[in-house]
Design brief:
By secondary structure, this protein is α/β, with parallel strands linked by helices. It contains four helices and five strands; from the N terminus they run ββαβαβαβα. Helix 1 packs parallel to helix 2.
Length: 118
């Protein structure tokens, strides 16, 4: 069985000052450690996670997203999710996380929202 992978790509939005972190791969038990480590190091005040490339999300991935959101919130930073796949959206809907973490259909809408709330 192939090992799950999750890749990260920084895409700073120079107009808004918001950082878009593009995720590609699976956010699951095998990849949550690297996700949490990467997100803990992120210093940007406003962060949008582009989830459009996340092909699979499980409960440990949901926990990692919540942990990221809560830790950043306690530090006075914002986090939003954008571009969820059907599977990711369904998992977050069932878990109730969509009521906690701001979610947007597109990265552009998430970035616009972050810059308006600043």
């Amino acid at each position: 069985m192939e090992t799950a992978k999750l890749e990260f790509q920084h895409m700073p939005d120079t107009e808004s000052g918001c950082l878009v972190q593009v995720l590609n791969g699976k956010l699951c038990l095998e990849t949550v450690h690297s996700f949490v480590q990467t997100m803990r190091q992120e210093q940007a005040k406003d962060l949008v996670l582009d989830m459009s490339g996340v092909s699979f999300l499980d409960s440990s991935g949901v926990g990692a997203l919540v942990s990221c959101f809560v830790n950043r919130q306690h530090a006075g930073k914002t986090t939003a999710l954008a571009g969820l796949t059907r599977q990711g959206s369904a998992v977050l809907q069932v878990s109730g996380v969509m009521k906690l973490i701001p979610t947007y259909p597109t990265v552009q809408e998430a970035v616009r929202s972050r810059s308006q709330s600043a």
